[in-house]
Amino acid sequence: MNDRTLEESLSALMDGETDIVELHRVLVATQTDLALRDKWARYQTARAAMHRRLDLSGSDISMKVAAEIGRDRSLRKIDSVWRHLGKTAIAASVAIAVLSFVRFYHGGADIDAAGKQSVQPELALIEQEPSAPVFLTGYRNSEAASVFDAQDSTGWYRQRLPFYLRQHAQQVTLMSGDRSLPYARAASVDGAAKE
Amino acid sequence: MRAALVCLFGIVLSFSAYADEARHWLNRLLEAEHTQSFQGTFIYERSGSFSTHTIWRNVAEDGRVWERLLQLDGILQETVMVDGVLQCTSSPVGYSAGEDSVWPVHSLDPEKLAQWYDIEVQGNSRVADRAAIVLSLIPHDQHRYVFKVYLDQVTGLLLKSMLLSEDGNLLERFQFTQLDTMLSAYDVRPGAACQPVQPISARDLTPGAWQIDWLPPGFDLVTTRLQRSSVSDKSVAYLMYDDGLAHFSIFLEPLHDAGVDDIRSQLGPTAVVSRRMSTNDGDVMVTIVGEIPLGTAERIALSIHPGNADD
To answer: What is the ipTM metric for this complex?
Structure first.
């Protein structure tokens, strides 16, 4: 075995027919002998071709590993965009489902022919209304002015405020789409001032 | 993934559909105000007042809207308006005339309203034995009140409205108890109790006569005039602002040494704030009257001062 040339030892190594001493000799030689390394690569290529496992990239393994890592990173990025979009869509779908349910609940109660359920939305709304005290008293004398009596020692406001309030309401009547409401506001000042 | 995109697209469409529905109903209200004749009975309620009224509204062939209102309780009070302009009333003293307005009359503008209020459909309801759609108009800031309106689903007419303060207090309630849109005729002829309105002399207010340094956002000037006081022969400057839904008026009346204190009060939905102001021609009382929060009215009153123009 010691008589073989390095090339013969290389070929024997390909076939697994070297002893440890010869293997050591080949490994040491390939560290410095570029031609021998090149031949080793060619032998490998030939064998791979015979076994149909050819990789013609010809690059160093370290470069190949780096390329593999890079490819994986960009894939991960694309994946996360779609994942994020998907999560947003799911969350939004849930939101719209809730909204639709609420809308349907308010609207659906109208369908009941008995009419009882149609009262429920109104009741629900009444519950939401503030429980303000309802004044069922009649008119009070000069109500518009009486509110300010404590501050109106000269009577300046008593003379003018009913006019100011009426004119304001009347101007709103002229301007706004619905006129009954501003009219009613003015009337509430009027009637009070007259009794 | 395609399904997710479709979902997203549908969500965007749905939200815009809700906003569109609210706008659709406001447009229907607007149309009804100009085209729908009816007769109805309504109540109006605020702190310290509860009254009932009947209204007949007839849209004539020429498009003019005649309205006759009769108060059903207390002293007989009858009012007739044509296109919102007062024609006659049972107590004409103190009312300003049905003068031709030089300012364009602008009615409800849903687009403008949407800048300052969130307008949403709340659901269905029933008012005056009629199916109603409920809209809420929630202000974007603290300078206006919440409006809740109930519109007739068949005609779009306003059946009920509530004005609510920021902390949920009910400031006023307006509600029809009966509505009839199927009559063959609507009697809008005034009775004997309705007396013609006498004009109050008025002229244009000099532009720049008064300067207002701060106004709540979204409120535009809609009318100004210089009119004769109802009490004396003094001239009172009058300005009105609105944001499409809320309104406030400013009165500037000379005091001429009268010892009058500032006031700050609320009459149901209406704030009344006054402030004594010094000018070159003597003291003037500035009074703000409007359906806006008291704090906002105060701030406006504090920001008014004489302008450069001489009035």
So the answer is: 0.89
